[in-house]
Write a structure and sequence with these properties.
Two copies of one chain form a homodimer.
Chain A (H helix, E strand, L loop, with lengths): L2 E7 L3 H11 L5 E8 L6 H14 L7 E3 L18 H12 L16 H7 L21 H13 L3 E5 L4 H9 L9 E5 L15 H5 L1 H9 L4 E4 L1 H4 L3 E2 L1 H4 L8 H20 L6 E2 L1 H10 L4 E6 L1 E3 L9 E3 L11 E7 L1 H17 L1
Parallel strand pairs in A: 1-2, 1-4, 2-3, 4-5, 5-6, 6-12
Antiparallel strand pairs in A: 7-8, 9-12, 10-11
Helix pairs in contact in A: 1-2, 1-12, 1-13, 5-6, 6-8
GO cellular component, one term (chains A, B): cytosol
Protein name (chains A, B): Inosine-uridine preferring nucleoside hydrolase
GO molecular function (chains A, B): purine nucleosidase activity
Amino acid sequence: MRKKLILDLDTGIDDALAIAYALGSAGDADLIGITATYGNVAVPLAARNALAVLHAFGRDDIPVYPGIDHPIAPAKLPLMRGTTPDERAEAYRRWQEGGEDGWQTDTPWSPSPGSVAVHHPNGIGGAVLPDSPRQPEAPGSAVDFIIAAARECGPDLTIVPTGAMTTMATVFRNAPDLKDSGINVTLMGGSLTLPGNVSPAAEANISQDPEAADYLFKCGARTTMIGLDVTHQTALTREKAHEWAALGTPAGDFLVTMTDYYIDFYVKNQPEIHGCGLHDPLAVAAALDPSLVTTFGFNLQVDLEGPFRGRTIGDRSRVQDPDKHTQVALGVNVPAFLDRFMQRVTAVVRG
Amino acid sequence: MRKKLILDLDTGIDDALAIAYALGSAGDADLIGITATYGNVAVPLAARNALAVLHAFGRDDIPVYPGIDHPIAPAKLPLMRGTTPDERAEAYRRWQEGGEDGWQTDTPWSPSPGSVAVHHPNGIGGAVLPDSPRQPEAPGSAVDFIIAAARECGPDLTIVPTGAMTTMATVFRNAPDLKDSGINVTLMGGSLTLPGNVSPAAEANISQDPEAADYLFKCGARTTMIGLDVTHQTALTREKAHEWAALGTPAGDFLVTMTDYYIDFYVKNQPEIHGCGLHDPLAVAAALDPSLVTTFGFNLQVDLEGPFRGRTIGDRSRVQDPDKHTQVALGVNVPAFLDRFMQRVTAVVRG
């Protein structure tokens, strides 16, 4: 049966590939909306890029909802802004209890130099992609859109968050009934059995808002985690990506330019990947077909302070609880995923 | 078929329970020797305690071989002795290339205050246990004993190391042919999906000699890791342990005194365990019957510097290698293990 699908993206190179994968999976899922979060880029650019990519693929029918545009606690500014661990914990607590957020500075969130290096300041590898003729929905509308869709669709709804988890955590905080609604949340983020990619502890998406991810893992929601554990096993080679050039379509040229930039980064910084990571597309693929990955159940937390900040790790206080809230993907059928990825994306690029 | 079994112990409270479990498993395995490593206590005390425990259980036929008595690199003394990361890396390299060891100080290894707190200065919870009438074998004889046994028994040999991995790593460094000999190495140590127990990163056994553990995971040997991932799921309650008191035997009284001390520590410091961890006995049980645990294959490394020193984590350079050298236990059949533990240990205590 075809699922209803929402992508919560910080679009982003691999986010753009995830959109292509989702559009190429029309037999499995109906992409009913994209919500914009931050991480690779800020929310306004994430929304702009999602609209532009949809336009390039001829899908101006899919709405884009901007989400929460900053983390719960001002964690990236502990020295610059003089916040302390206690102040961050207090911000997190205020937020858990229903405060709008814990952010108490006037400095807008902006991507880290690392994110800019990976995705280019324009988020899509410097590729020139025209603006969509459309505008995003109202600022902050992502939370209400997801809650309404979850109430309507229940277990038929799959959400794939691939950036900061702030919007997703806010959904469950604002609508606690959704924890048991059967909606499927398959997130790209975290790293349980490998070092992180922004610190020895932290994976990029989790590091953007560790408090939000911690809340998501502990709040009772059922999640599937597609982290570096599996996404570092799947790589797109330059040779494969260049197959899209032969299609002679603007969409194909766009993807080649974008992935060339991404692969250049990986060749220089993570040559052991042998290509570029297919983080977000793998999350979409696993959400639509869980048989692509092998999962194991855990109850997770996110470390919030010190050099371990942003680490996804088992919650020792729940290790003896037989009810595991997060299925963590540890294995992946690499050839099956790569074949499907190329088939589905190529079909969309061909038009 | 009955296996040949060697326990490489830093005896220790749960090591003493592991000896009892092994002796109670005579139908599965023939305990052909105990080798002494360090961690809970220093090697001489580990050998003394192993002999004393064997004597208490009426098994003066099993030889005890002292192993390497200090880590490869003087890692515990970086500030005190002025060693640097570069000096430690150099010590590790010298050792890998066949040097006797990298230890370049005149300070003997001694257990950390944490180990002393967990196991008491006498290693067995302050219980009074008479010396064995026997002496240990020659100092350092553990390496040669294990190599000879592995050459003789091949896949019929199971080794269960439960302390610092120095002796085990030296075995594979000195006899590289054993990597493909089919011997089964099921180690208690590490923590892949939970925080460590001596730091947010490090589990105690690995932290004693991170270089040795790193070598063991990378050298090509086939290992099974029984870490905190599963040992924190299995706990011995005070109520269960006190069943041994009713047996009215000196061995039973010894185990009750010892485990009371251990459980006191856990109640105070890790109440979420609901008893005391059965780390080492679970490793023996899983070595003898792998069906008690659920494992997943990984290629591991050990972090060697900074706040992550001693962390067991996936080796990113080998994540795409389909050949996984370590099976990490992530799940455990808790009721089956606890039943078997009580049956086998109680049978030995009853005499």
